[in-house]
Amino acid sequence: MTTFLAAVLTATAPVVLAALGGLLCSVSGVFNMALEGQLLWGAFTAVLFSHLTGSAWLGVAGAVLCTTLYALLLSVPAVTFRADPVVVAVGTNLLALGLTAFLMRQIFGSGGTFSSPELAGLPTLAALGLDAPVAGSQSPLVPVAFLLVAAAAWWLGHARSGLRLRGIGQHAEAAESIGLRVPLYRHAAVLGAGALCGLGGAQLALGNVTLFSEGMSAGRGWVAVVAVMLAGSRPWLGLAACLLFGAAEALGFRLQGLGLPQQAADAAPYLITLLALVVVAAARRKEAPV
Amino acid sequence: MSVPAVELVGITKRFGDVTANDGVDLAVERGEVHAVVGENGAGKSTLMSILYGLHPPDAGHVLRAGTRLRLRSPADAIAHGLGMVHQRFRLFPGLSVAENVVLGAEPMRRGVLDRAAARRSVADLAERYGLDVDPGARIGDLPVGTRQRVEILKALYRRAEVLILDEPTAVLTPGEAAGLFRMVRELAAEGVSVLLVTHKLDEVLAAGDRVTVLRGGRVTGRFPTAGTSADDLVRAMIGRSLATAPTTAKKPPATTGALPTAKKPPATTGVPPTAKKPPAIAGGAPYRLEVRDLRVRDRDGVAAVGGVSFSVRPGEIVGIAGVAGSGQRELVDVMTGLRRAHSGTVLLDGRPVGGARDRRVAYVPGDRAGRATAPDMSLADNLLMGDQRGFLLGPGRVRGRAAALVERFSIRAASVRAPIAQLSGGNAQKAVLARELSRDTPVLVVEEPTQGVDVGAQEQIHALLAAARDAGRAVLLQSSELSELRALADRVLVMFEGRLTADLPVAEATDERLGAAMTGATGVRRPAGESTE
To answer: Which region ranges are annotated with the description Disordered (chain B) (predicted)?
Structure first.
């Protein structure tokens, strides 16, 4: 049971980080569909910096920095030039897929999967002297992910900037009319989402495993988008949606061990996500006013 | 003489080739209610936008208590004690009243929002100016009149000493409007200067101290309200005198149809609507439009229309009044076949209305850009829609037809090929009417025909509706302008919470009676949200 719970947390953490970023954007009124590409970019840059410096933590820092910069590809067109964020996001997602594959061949000299003994992964909490039944096997970024959810929930409710961000998302014109600089907040939200995706990508490539493979985000960014759509502006609900996905992934992995074909196990989390989307949409329809 | 609280000096503003303001001077004293009137496009909104820092003027400047201001944004205007309540409210629907009021100038305690202080100061302000608002309520749950009070509180919280109200009564019931003006007078008594932007002249004369009239971006008149008549203002506004009530002269006597079912709620006034039955041309004719015990539910099963019955004879205009959201929209949707009723029937010339846009119904929707037109398509295409026959349209035939309608309905447009969105509100509305009236239907359903339409076009539109009636059509006219209903309708029905609370011949439809029925003060009343069954 503890190994199962540990597997759930491991699977959930990258998705939660990306979803939290998406949620901040959604609260600010920008629909961020670029999470998938940013997670992948984060994973790649984490591996790159870890490999170059020999330090997993510099890998994490590099991923956060690079993915924040990568998020400019969304924030500048979508916020400054008012392009459709969905269209821009599709572009940046495709770019991430191609760019990581290209750079991988250029820098590491091979396609597919890159792994090397020199590549430093994140230590487990146990290795840092914080051993506990479920948590011990996790990287330090896992508790950070869950703490960030709590921090975001509190911040949105109690901080001045949190209240303003909510207001901007609900009625940008109203926010402008009381003198708020709407683009500033939106840029911050999109770039913040980039930083969180960088963190998520680092956890994916240096925490869950210690390698980079092409397309390794494998739809987790999309699941995060779904979690945002389910959660609206409530971070705890977003966390719940991500946990559901994480549980499905961990369960699929388990069932694979019991003889379930791998393809079915791989599909399980996405099927669950789809199901949740349908169920919630149906429930919403019922309660929505005309 | 004292220094004016705010003064606009020689304001000129151009948008491309259009000069929206041309050397406008305007001074407002402390504690004065100053009305700014003019037709749509006269430059009122532009002038207020400049004062509120939304647009920089091309020439001229703003003085506040004698000091010249540089207004680069609303934040600058707010900092100098200016506040604006926009026609379309700028509130955050998901946030509370207190959050809405303080947002942007939040009280803080140790780096954290001080929610208690926010609620307290909002409650204090509300008390001081006699504005009845619960600071904890969510904006989305509040009626429009209350939301407007929140907007005013928002300005007062920011210590506004000059308050700009842009068309404040457009969304209010007569009762709410009266309340607003009491409030405005109270604010003025406290030393607040109020700029009241409106096109309703009775309001100007009732609530204002002085009036500035704009026309074509220039000031065409300045009047003290004392001793000024509505006619003086109209002359300054449009440069000529309006033929008052263009339709009443040739209108046949009011007809009243007895409601055919027993479910009729009692009339508001105690005067039975059937009391006098003048022998009108329409009097003996069979009903063209009959609505019997109509019930419409929204998705939650809540009654939007809860048992409505009435009928309209040929050559009769029946008006529908009511606060927005009282079920008028749903009622009209059923008439036009756009929504299915839960129970009850709608008969046109004795046969039930069928399917979406029954061809026997002409419909002029209130939502011009969303429902009545496809804004990005050309005027010609919009004039054609719903009436195309055959497989091929033939561009020549389309344009020919469009040109004929443009001529007949005197629609002013640069080209029939230009998008209809480029037309002014009045011309776009005339285009919709042209399309709908060009088909010979027994029934005409009209929503808010003159909303966002300038005074000149209003006259033409009213004449068109009167002509449709004279041609023997049954006309159902939903409007929030009581004066419009009184000018055109033979009978006025009032809806409240999905039911009819009044059915009055126009002669008896006074503001007081209609206002009372609109708030459900008398007649059948149900608590909101209660299901029919």
So the answer is: 244-282
